[in-house]
Design goal:
Elements (H helix, E strand, L loop, with lengths): L3 H4 L1 E5 L1 H11 L1 H16 L11 E5 L2 E9 L3 E9 L13 E7 L5 E6 L1 H19 L6 E5 L5 H12 L3 E5 L3 H10 L6 E4 L3 H4 L5 E4 L6 E5 L9 E4 L8 E3 L1 H6 E5 L2 H7 L12 E2 H6 L11 E5 L4 H14 L7 E4 L10 H7 L7
Parallel strand pairs: 1-6, 7-8, 7-10, 8-9, 10-12, 11-13, 12-16, 14-15, 14-16
Antiparallel strand pairs: 1-17, 2-3, 3-4, 4-5, 5-6
């Protein structure tokens, strides 16, 4: 039987816990599990509260809150994006998240989400490709070899059957880092000296760069027919990666249009440019890839439902494991109406 005292203890998953959980489950299995969890939630999309993330922008970055609820559980993520941080030895993106019971409002989980966001972003990319990429695709170009790149490569291997990745970054050290980390994973890894070289033979193109600026990572002449583009680097106003003509040649799929039109690649287009919501493809309400020559583009900015899926997955996954610590986060007076009395009795020398 659950008691009020039990409810006052909140499982907390630290960075060390999360790394332990990843190795306990296996990173590729976790990427498969997260993709399945997100897919299940996208198929019940209409049950969720939906709002664009709440963003606080500064000249050097952004801090965001990403909330949602399915009516039974509530979740939010705090996340930042500061591209200049790497020059200071810091992470570009850090995050933490919370899951709560709608019925009581009590938190059910507090967790790091820097690692978890990398995992869920990669799982989301691969899930979209399952519906949109050319059938039988085996080679992916990975443009931008920073903190996300290895997770992306492994997610596409685990969920889509990719067996070759072609890496390129403007910083050769980043490519070397990525190639080194992917040794022994079963992937064939090709390090390239240009974006054009990385595209050779690639049926899937993933762009993941960090600079907060209008950039042209892919020019129009780099993209031939029949490919799937997974554009995940453009994720805030004023930050894009693709030349606008590519967008006009592509069938564009998004998570949540009110957010993507502000933050994604499609901020370059007219506000009424047609896009397809990915959840509709998953439920069969809309078509995904229609033919072999079509260019499909997943304009991914990340959405709160994906984080909700990841939070709920971790909450289940840690049960009966050592990968969490109970935190005494919530006041638990004997009489719920006597919060002051609980504080008073905690004074040094107090009686009763």
């Amino acid at each position: 039987m659950t008691t009020p005292s039990d409810l006052a203890l909140v499982p907390f998953v630290s960075v060390d816990h999360m790394m332990g959980l990843v190795h306990h489950i296996g990173i590729e299995q976790m990427l498969i599990d997260l993709a399945a969890e997100i897919e299940a939630d996208f198929k019940r999309w209409e049950l969720f509260d939906k709002t664009p993330r709440v963003a606080s922008h500064s000249p050097v970055g952004v801090i965001e809150l990403m909330p949602t609820s399915d009516g039974e559980m509530y979740g939010f993520k705090y996340v930042n994006g500061h591209p200049k941080n790497t020059r200071e030895g810091l992470q570009t993106v850090t995050a933490f998240g919370l899951l709560a019971d709608v019925n009581t409002g009590y938190p059910k989980l507090l967790t790091e989400m820097t690692i978890l966001t990398a995992l869920r972003t990669a799982a989301m990319s691969a899930l979209a490709a399952k519906y949109l990429a050319p059938k039988g695709a085996r080679t992916m170009a990975m443009i931008g070899n920073g903190a996300q790149s290895e997770f992306q490569c492994l997610a596409f291997k685990a969920n889509c059957g990719i067996d070759t990745v072609r890496l390129y970054d403007v910083d050769p050290k980043a490519t070397l880092k990525c190639a080194t980390n992917l040794r022994g994973t079963g992937l064939t890894v090709v390090s390239c000296d240009s974006g054009e070289s990385a595209m050779e033979g690639a049926e899937i193109i993933t762009t993941c760069t960090a600079d907060k600026q209008y950039a042209t990572i892919l020019t129009d002449n780099m993209v031939g027919s029949g490919v799937h583009i997974n554009a995940i680097g453009g994720d805030c106003p004023g930050k894009t990666e693709l030349a606008a003509p590519i967008l006009h040649r592509s069938e564009i799929f998004v998570e949540y249009p009110p957010q993507t039109r502000v933050e994604g690649e499609i901020q370059q287009l007219d506000p009424d440019h047609p896009v397809t919501e990915l959840w509709q493809v998953m439920t069969g309400a809309a078509e995904g890839r229609r033919d072999a020559r079509q260019i499909t583009l997943f304009d991914s900015v990340g959405f709160a439902i994906e984080d909700f899926s990841a939070l709920r997955y971790v909450h289940r996954a840690i049960q009966a494991t050592r990968f969490f610590t109970n935190l005494d986060m919530l006041a638990d007076p004997d009489d719920p109406r006597d919060l002051f009395g609980m504080v008073a009795r905690a004074a040094p020398g107090a009686v009763g």
